[in-house]
Amino acid sequence: MGRTLRRVAVGVIAIVVVLGLPATAMAASSQGRARRGAAYLVTQQQPDGSIPAFSPIGSTSDAIVAFEAAGVGGHAVTSALGYLKAQTKAGNVNSLGLEAKVVLALEAAGKNPRSFGGQNLVKEIEGTLAPNGRYGTDPLLDDALAVLAVVSAGDTVPGQASAWLLDGQCPNGGWAYDEPYDPATDDADCNSGPSDFYNADSNTTSYVVQALEATGHTAWATSPFSFFDEVHDTVYGGWSYDLSFVSTDANSTALVLQAYAAAHVAVPKGGLAALRDLQYPGCGAWAYNWSGTTLGPPDIGATIGAIPGLLLDPLPIAHGAIRAGTPSVPSC
């Protein structure tokens, strides 16, 4: 079974196990929701092709991945690729994380990251690998993205790179955004004191789980799913960013769902429903979180992240058939 077909099968099985509904009905429902989300993103695309949220280059790259996962939005992808190519030519794809996100987008779109905007982005990423197994010196989250990018490009990730990520795990099972666990200074949540603003978080942990699953190196000391249990919101059923305030948000929930799918672990009951409940039924956008008992405002970044999470489609997402159009949706 091919990588894409295997991923779809795992996603469908997880949906059935969690929700107890016919596989075809649930897959169709999730795909329809994903396509409405893609349609909302098309309405937010700028004339230059970007779909800016947290970062114009990073979010546009992520949006391409979302379109490819949804299987619609071909014209929007073409325009977004044009934007990324211009930014690459201009030298603005200039950090490990941005290079990795662009590579993941290009591979999902069936384009060559070794010749894009005059750059060989795969070579640039691989050239940052240090003897200790760390890619570059950027935050640990970017290292996980770099591993995923190398895998998506079809290259072998050296064993020391997987080992560096494994060794960086916090004792509570998570990973922190900035640096690996340091037993000399850090507590179980990877915090070293008042001046350390980064604890273990669900987003970084999800990217690391997806990266290590992609390389086949998952001999973690503590199950990361025990950490996901800690940041699970028992009220709304989703997941929060970290332990400082446990409350469902779309981005964290979607990423955690991708981690479960990557590891072939059944999604906890209510996890998918929590993400579905954050989507506006008409315009297709996702809210980032709940504002009291009502949805927060439509959010571009939340919608980008929600689509592959809803489809239980972990990174790296392989290129597949994509239609040019999207469903007609009203304005939010």
Categorize the overall geometry: globular
Sketch the major β-sheet: 2 strands, antiparallel
Which segments are poorly predicted (pLDDT under 50) over 5 or more consecutive residues? 1-21
- The total of beta strands comes to 6
Strand content: under 5%
Q: Rg to the nearest angstrom?
A: 19 Å
Strand order within the widest beta sheet: 1-2
The SS-based structural class is mainly alpha
How far do the termini sit from each other?
40 Å
Give me the strand/helix succession.
Answer: HHHHHHHHEEHHHHEEEEH
Enumerate how many helices there are, as a single number: 13
Instruction: Give the averaged pLDDT, no decimals.
Output: 92
- Percent of residues in helices: 40-55%
Q: How are the SSEs placed, and which strands pair?
A:
Layout: H1 3-19, H2 23-44, H3 56-70, H4 74-89, H5 96-108, H6 121-126, H7 140-152, H8 159-167, E1 175-176, E2 200-201, H9 202-215, H10 224-230, H11 250-262, H12 271-276, E3 286-287, E4 290-291, E5 294-295, E6 298-299, H13 300-310
Helix pairs in contact: 1-2, 2-3, 2-13, 3-4, 3-5, 3-13, 5-7, 7-9, 9-11, 11-13
